[in-house]
Amino acid sequence: MGKICKSCGHYYSGEYCDKCGYGKPAEVAESVKKYRKAAKKKPLRMQTEEDKKLYAKWAKEEKQGQVQKRTDPKAKVHFLIVVVIAALIVLGFALYKSGAVFSNTKEEVIQQYFTAISQGDYDKFVKCFPKEIKREYDDDRQASGLSKEEYMKALYQEFTDTYGAGYSITVKFGDMTPLSPDDYDMTAYKEQHGSAPKLSEVCEVVTNIEFRGAKGSQQSKLFIYVGRSGGYWHIFGMDEDMGSINADGSPNEGEIPPVVENEDTIK
């Protein structure tokens, strides 16, 4: 059944006027906009209560329409995703800096140092040190023209000559003494290497070492200084007591005691 458009007088048979769009549910028709605009110009003193309610309804509809146009329904989801990713990045960085993840221990870095020497593993060896010392080893190796394997062999050839090929290294840890900022100063380190890392912890680790091979054996007591920076422990230096030691770490002026079987032996 046909209808006459209340806006333009056009005859139409659908749900809305196909000429001016009056009655179209998806959007406010142009004719309705014109009608509302003209109606709003009606003086306030001539407006009835129905007019006021109708104008209020129109204002609400127009406001809702504007908000709907400005708001992307996916914007909140995208915003939440960005916030979550940012939070995870911040949390991950904080955990890394604190050493809660991707960290090592004082014992592990020292054990890695002697394992790298025994195995001739250059990459594992230089990772035991802070970046400044690592850089110096890298520069020295490149200047020498040696491969990583050749460099490690040349660096510790003395051990092979003294103890024989395939020598083992036994590592036993003694006292671990935390050092306060008053006990250590990075000024000399910075002058020597150009820069110095910011250390959150520093510790002196008494480490008893035994080299044993076909040609001979020797024990020594080392005072290894390790520092923690960026969640990782690195070796910054060591002092050696050339005298032999007993199994309990006490000095031994006599014969070298036998290897204790339950110690960490590296071959």
Verbal overview:
The chain starts with a strand and ends with a strand. It is rod-shaped, with a radius of gyration of 40 Å. The strands form three sheets. It has a five-stranded antiparallel β-sheet with strand order 6-5-4-3-9. A two-stranded antiparallel sheet has the order 1-2. A two-stranded antiparallel sheet has the order 7-8. Residues 95-102 and 254-262 have low confidence and may be disordered. With 267 residues, the protein is of the alpha+beta class. The chain is built from nine helices and nine strands. It has three domains: 3-70, no CATH class; 72-102; 106-266, Nuclear Transport Factor 2, Chain: A, CATH 3.10.450.
Summarize, please:
This protein is α+β, with helices and mostly antiparallel strands. Helix content is 42%, strand content 22%. This is DUF4878 domain-containing protein.
**Which band does the percent of strand residues land in?**
15-25%
Residue stretches low in confidence (pLDDT < 50, at least 5 long) are 95-102, 254-262
Give the count of structural domains.
Answer: 3
Averaged pLDDT: 77
Order of helices and strands: EEHHHHHHHHEHEEEEEE
Features:
alpha+beta, 9 helices, Nuclear Transport Factor 2, Chain: A, transmembrane, 3 domains, 42% helix, two-stranded antiparallel ribbon, rod-shaped, 267 residues, transmembrane helix
Secondary-structure map with pairings?
Blueprint: E1 3-4, E2 11-12, H1 30-40, H2 49-70, H3 75-98, H4 106-119, H5 122-126, H6 131-144, H7 148-155, H8 157-163, E3 168-179, H9 187-193, E4 201-213, E5 216-229, E6 232-241, E7 244-245, E8 251-252, E9 264-266
Antiparallel strand pairs: 1-2, 3-4, 3-9, 4-5, 5-6, 7-8
Transmembrane segments: 77-96
Protein name: DUF4878 domain-containing protein
Region (Disordered): 246-267
